[in-house]
């Protein structure tokens, strides 16, 4: 029996009823059946909360290269031998790489390099699963040798070389104190005013000959 249809029919009879008792009986029947309908409505179940899987950042990797390609090997991921290709999500730009392994042992894993030391062909780059490792293959934008994979490593190495160069110059100056004094005097002469230049010229001339020059001139450094 369609209770809702029955209630609708009862409600349609009320305007036709004239005796108060008839109207009261119809209304009581309507109320009873409406109560029955409400009891049969199934309660709404709350939607279960979506479980957010933790993301682990992977830092360890190995790499090698040919003149045309750079390859990165990521294997420091537990259970990676059980992963499938559909769990691998990649994003490449001309100078960056981002690889995710999703939903592995109830976790997500992420490996990324924000700035590579050289340019790559992003459209041709890829990542594959092989023998429990993620192998990231990136064709170089131009052939050549990379000394480092990341720009951070490259800048660190360049800064180290520059420091070594400055330390070497400093060591040479300390081995020859007069050379350091000469450089200091030359700097003072170049940056000084006319009085400073005359004073330095005089001091330089007297140190060489013991005489005062009649015409001031730049010291011979």
From TrEMBL:
Residues forming the CS domain are: 56-150
**Which InterPro entries does the record associate with it?**
Calcyclin-binding_UBL-bridge, CS_CacyBP, CS_dom, HSP20-like_chaperone, SGS_dom
Which portions of the chain have biased composition (kind: Basic and acidic residues)? 157-175
Q: Boundaries of each SGS domain copy?
A: 135-221
Gene3D superfamilies, per database record: 2.60.40.790
* Superkingdom, natural source: Eukaryota
Question: Mind listing the GO molecular function terms for this protein?
Answer: S100 protein binding; tubulin binding; ubiquitin protein ligase binding
Q: What is this protein called?
A: Calcyclin-binding protein-like
Organism the protein comes from: Oopsacas minuta
């Amino acid at each position: 029996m369609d209770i809702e249809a029955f209630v609708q029919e009862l409600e349609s009879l009320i305007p036709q009823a004239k005796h108060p008792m008839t109207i009261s009986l119809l209304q009581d029947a309507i109320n009873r059946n409406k109560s029955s309908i409400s009891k049969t409505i199934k309660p709404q179940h709350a939607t279960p909360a979506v479980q957010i899987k933790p993301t682990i950042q992977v830092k360890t990797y190995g790499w090698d290269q040919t003149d045309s390609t750079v390859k990165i090997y990521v294997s420091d991921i537990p259970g990676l031998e059980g992963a499938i290709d559909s769990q691998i999500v990649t994003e490449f730009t001309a100078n960056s790489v981002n690889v995710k392994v999703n939903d592995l042992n109830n976790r997500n894993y992420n490996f990324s390099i924000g700035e590579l030391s050289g340019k790559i062909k992003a459209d041709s780059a890829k990542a594959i699963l092989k023998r429990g490792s993620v192998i990231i293959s990136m064709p170089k934008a131009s052939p050549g040798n990379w000394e480092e994979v990341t720009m951070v490593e490259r800048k660190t190495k360049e800064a180290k070389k520059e420091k070594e160069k400055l330390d070497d110059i400093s060591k040479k100056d300390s081995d020859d104190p007069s050379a350091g004094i000469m450089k200091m005097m030359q700097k003072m002469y170049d940056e000084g005013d006319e009085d400073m230049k005359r004073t330095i010229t005089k001091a330089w001339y007297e140190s060489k000959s013991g005489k005062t020059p009649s015409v001031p001139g730049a010291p011979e450094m």
